[in-house]
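Hi R.,

Here's the chain you asked about this morning:
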Amino acid sequence: MANSAAVKAPQKSKGAGIFARMGRFIRESYVETRYKSAWPTLPELRSFTLVVIFAVVVVAAWIATLDAALGWFTSHLGR
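And the predicted structure, written out as tokens:
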């Protein structure tokens, strides 16, 4: 049987404190957002916005229709 002391994993050191890790996270987030992200151009942003508005209107119309139909159905069900 092997010596259990030799099998143990080495102890991790605590490393940087919580504020140092938070600072590093904020710095890395800023660098990634500012320099490594691909931002849309203004025409792309406009077209994406129109697509989102259209999708919201379609889904709202679908939900309103479904709500009205189910409301009508349940009101006639109890008669």
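Helices lie at 4-7, 18-36, 42-77.

Let me know if you need anything else.
M.
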